[in-house]
């Protein structure tokens, strides 16, 4: 935690901000990319959202109050930026958010950056059937292995509600995967 406090103070100091930001990028770029990628599905979209996320972090670090961990704050920005992109794409294409997600999953097999197989595509399709909050909770718990406390900070909700959401999401995914 003292390392995080040191990093935050260096990020807020104009003299050390650039070096501290490069360190922040090194520390969190990959984790945030994969978090975003699970939400937006497409590599190109994930790259765009990641860039927007770090721009927001850079511009708004002075507004970070330290009420949560820096990591949780950045995850919240990444999550919001991801949802914003999905909403923007849905509006631009005049389709629902679910249809945007379906389109992205259907394009996965052709994505040169996707190294999964049919089972992973089927899992992504199952996850895409979940309501937005359950999808986020499932991804953060199952793939990112975050603790409920961390997810609660990121999504600004109670741990109890998250446990229920995760449990329901798992049941829905199991039902989807065992149907056919």
From TrEMBL:
UniProt protein name: RNA polymerase sigma factor
Report the source organism: Winogradskyella litorisediminis
The record's InterPro entries line, in alphabetical order, gives: RNA_pol_sigma-70-like, RNA_pol_sigma-70_dom, RNA_pol_sigma70_r2, RNA_pol_sigma70_r4_t2, RNA_pol_sigma_r2, RNA_pol_sigma_r3/r4-like, WH-like_DNA-bd_sf
Return the similarity comment. Belongs to the sigma-70 factor family. ECF subfamily.
Q: Which residues form a coiled coil?
A: none
Domain RNA polymerase sigma-70 region, first and last residues per copy: 25-91
> Which keywords does this chain's UniProt record carry?
Sigma factor, Transcription, Transcription regulation
* Pfam families according to UniProt: Sigma70_r2, Sigma70_r4_2
- Asked if Kinase is a keyword of the record, the answer is no
The family database entries (NCBIfam families) matched by this protein are listed as:
sigma70-ECF (TIGR02937)
The secretion signal range is: none
Question: Residue limits of the RNA polymerase sigma factor 70 region 4 type domain?
Answer: 122-173
């Amino acid at each position: 935690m003292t390392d995080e406090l040191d990093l935050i103070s260096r990020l807020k100091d104009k003299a050390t901000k650039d070096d501290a930001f490069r360190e922040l990028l090194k520390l969190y770029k990959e984790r945030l990319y994969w978090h975003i990628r699970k939400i937006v599905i497409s590599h190109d979209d994930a790259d765009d959202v990641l860039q927007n996320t770090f721009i927001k972090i850079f511009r708004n670090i002075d507004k970070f109050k330290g009420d949560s961990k820096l990591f949780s704050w950045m995850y919240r920005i990444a999550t919001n930026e991801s949802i914003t992109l999905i909403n923007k794409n849905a509006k631009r294409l005049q389709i629902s958010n679910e249809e945007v997600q379906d389109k992205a999953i259907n394009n996965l097999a052709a994505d040169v950056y996707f190294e999964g197989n049919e089972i992973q595509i089927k899992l992504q399709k199952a996850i895409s059937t979940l309501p937005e909050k359950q999808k986020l909770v499932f991804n953060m718990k199952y793939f990112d292995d975050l603790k409920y406390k961390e997810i609660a900070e990121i999504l600004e909700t109670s741990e109890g509600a998250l446990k229920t959401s995760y449990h329901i999401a798992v049941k829905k995914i199991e039902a989807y995967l065992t149907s056919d």
